[in-house]
């Protein structure tokens, strides 16, 4: 039904009349890097849960009430990768309209390499740019974020100032309807 | 109750066992400007609804499912101010943790001055920096966004490149518990 003064249908409890608004959810994550002797590696997690079981992702998950975007990104990085990171700037904001989500990724620097897969990960590993399993990434926002990151790095090698902030709309799944 | 495999309590329907996750909501808006003969003015709306009835705000409201952050910002600008704007870059992202919200504001340029208050506004007006009713602003995220905007303008007058992207945590209400 459409509540009074509103302009679209809402879920309304038939017993207590509470209106359950359905709004897009935020997915917060990090792009954790480790630089050693000029070589940069990115941390990825192999998913132990559906959707996209067995595919690689940046650590990310749903933001909860009572936390900030930064706190959510940090929490997911600990939960999924057991990683100890220092958070950097917000790097990417991606609209994933068809699944009612907005994905955001913060830059992050690993403080050490003592990471370990959490309950939702089968494996956690470091990848150089050429080692990234591009064909086995879980979601289009992961691919887009990694592409934007390495594009910024390439520009920085040519003298550009630093990492930018990027926004993008993702309008279709990676492959197959199960991958949003 | 805490669902299996989860780590925090959720609202679970006692009849059908549906889990109603409670996640932070996004509030999307714009900072619409009009520049004439070197003089810049910002559009503000006087709220016709609670909370903060009668106080001034940038056009903004809850993002709905099936729209992007840009589309939500544009929709709210039309609904509250009847304004015809061209959207610019995402300018500010503010965590308002204590009310479970994230507020985002896009820069926007008015295409004309044919705006008019919508149902949720008592009035819509243009303000130069010195005319902004700082003591009658509705929410701290509005004040912070306007302050960041004019600070960027001041830096630009001294040769800085352009508007930045800003993130900030808002940890307390403007004044009194009704203003979040």
Automatic annotation (TrEMBL), chains A, B:
PROSITE patterns the UniProt entry points to: NUDIX (PS51462), NUDIX_BOX (PS00893)
Keywords: Hydrolase, Magnesium
Gene3D superfamilies linked: 2.20.70.10, Nucleoside Triphosphate Pyrophosphohydrolase
Domain Nudix hydrolase positions: 23-150
Cofactor: Mg(2+)
Matching Pfam families: NUDIX, Zn_ribbon_Nudix
Family indicated by similarity: Belongs to the Nudix hydrolase family.
Protein name according to UniProt: ADP-ribose pyrophosphatase
């Amino acid at each position: 039904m459409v509540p009074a003064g509103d302009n679209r249908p809402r879920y309304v409890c038939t017993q207590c009349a509470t209106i359950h608004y359905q709004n897009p959810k935020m997915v917060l994550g990090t792009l954790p890097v480790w630089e050693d002797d000029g070589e940069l590696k990115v941390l990825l997690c192999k998913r132990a849960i559906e959707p996209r079981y067995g595919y690689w992702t940046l650590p990310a998950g749903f933001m909860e009430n009572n936390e900030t975007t930064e706190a959510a990104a940090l929490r997911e990085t600990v939960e999924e990768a057991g990683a100890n990171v220092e958070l950097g700037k917000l790097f990417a904001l991606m609209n994933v309209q068809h699944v009612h989500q907005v994905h955001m990724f913060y830059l992050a620097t690993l403080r050490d390499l003592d990471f370990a897969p959490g309950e939702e990960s089968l494996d956690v590993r470091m990848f150089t740019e050429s080692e990234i399993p591009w064909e086995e990434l879980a979601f289009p926002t992961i691919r887009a974020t990694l592409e934007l990151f390495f594009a910024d790095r390439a520009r920085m090698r040519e003298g550009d100032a630093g990492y930018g902030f990027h926004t993008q709309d993702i309008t279709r799944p990676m492959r197959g309807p199960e991958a949003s």
